[in-house]
Specification:
Keywords: Bacterial flagellum, Cell projection, Cilium, Flagellum
Distance between the termini: 72 Å
Radius of gyration: 24 Å
Protein name: Flagellar hook-basal body complex protein FliE
Family: Belongs to the FliE family.
Number of strands: 0
Pfam family, one: FliE
Helix content: 55-70%
Oligomer: single chain
Main location: other
Order of helices and strands: HH
Length: 106
Amino acid sequence: MSIDAIQPLGAISPVSSFMNATDTTGAPADPAAGVNFGNMVAQGLQKLQDAQNTADDLAVEAATGRLTDVHDYIIAATEANLATSLTVAVRNKALDAFNEIMRMQA
């Protein structure tokens, strides 16, 4: 019994073709010229507030009987919960980094 070798797939291009690809995201080439961390945090907090407001509005609609699809509320509440968890995790990492810097200076 003969065992044939595995043949490469022709539909998949080799990874080396991506090595010379240009960036099309519009992001600045210089990392120092990128987005300010403070602005990123402020935008993240604004998105968190928006998600919580949406979930609150849908909860009120569910309580008053005006909500036609309960899944909308469940999805919005889950998104708000995940956004809150992410915000707390970022805050904890920032505090850990601050404490580590303070220990290095002591």
